[in-house]
Design brief:
Rossmann fold; seven-stranded mixed sheet; 7 strands
Length: 265
């Protein structure tokens, strides 16, 4: 459910991608990467962990790369749009990666970043008691605030919009589902991106996921109760920023009949 909401929030800010060169980073199991590619445009995908990269390739095929949060293999000014999905909280080099995003975005390019929103709450404390810690999910920091992202992007980007979403009821459901899936994957090696649900999981635990399909309408209605909490902030933060750099000036070719004249005093 959270992934559905996440995709909706991203696409509302992303707009049309027809005819554009785009990159998504942090797609985990590849579902968001797959759905983004269906919207049109020329897409590439990247993630930290080998398990995540393989899962994305299973869904989208080619143009999937493994990165480490530093220098990438992409060209200067390659992309019109870059979407970062729950990635920055997994790397120590977020400032270095912000510089890399500046390099690979075209002048006038746009950046969408989705990250956890830092907030103190009873639900967060409960998650830690249940073992759903930042360390378990591969987070090197609990998340960001708008001010922290503004500082991170500094003079390279201008943030034009931000909001929080996914409040208490949605997050409670997500916590319950995460615990349930963790139980089904008990004993398996956890990736550096934390819990990743792959196609193999769906095949191996069909009965559990069928049960989820049955209770989904009830959980969907429960998540709608978030609208009653209009005075509170959400647990996820999403921003839209524009890169601030000028297009390179085209070099002027000299006419074929141009003659160089050197005057010697």
């Amino acid at each position: 459910m959270l992934k559905q909401r996440k995709f909706r929030e991203i696409t509302e800010l992303l707009g049309s991608t027809e005819g554009l060169d785009c990159l998504d980073v942090g797609g985990d199991n590849g579902v968001i990467s797959y759905l983004l590619r269906r919207r049109g445009g020329m897409w590439k995908s990247a993630d930290l962990d080998g398990t995540a990269v393989r899962a994305i390739r299973e869904l989208v095929g080619d143009s999937v790369f493994q990165i480490d949060g530093g220098k990438t293999c992409f060209k200067d000014d390659e992309f019109d749009r870059v979407v970062i999905v729950d990635f920055l909280e997994h790397i120590h080099t977020d400032a270095e990666f912000a510089e890399e995003l500046f390099r690979i975005l075209k002048p006038g390019g746009e950046l969408i970043i989705n990250v956890p929103y830092v907030k103190k709450s009873l639900l967060r404390k409960l998650r830690h008691v249940l073992g759903e810690t930042d360390e378990k999910h591969g987070h090197v920091r609990p998340g960001y605030t708008p001010d922290r992202l503004t500082h991170l992007l500094h003079h390279r980007f201008k943030i034009v919009f931000w909001k929080t979403y996914s409040k208490f009821f949605s997050e409670s459901i997500d916590t319950f589902l995460t615990l349930a899936i963790s139980w089904t994957k008990k004993g398996e090696l956890v990736s550096s991106k934390g819990l990743i649900v792959t196609g193999r999981d769906l095949s191996g635990h069909r009965k559990i996921f069928r049960l989820y399909s049955f209770v989904y309408p009830f959980l969907w209605l429960m998540a709608k109760l978030d609208m009653l909490l209009f005075w509170t902030s959400g647990y996820m933060l999403i921003i839209k920023a524009k890169v601030e750099k000028s297009a390179p000036r085209p070099s002027r070719a000299l006419p074929q009949n141009f003659k160089s004249v050197v005057q010697i005093p």
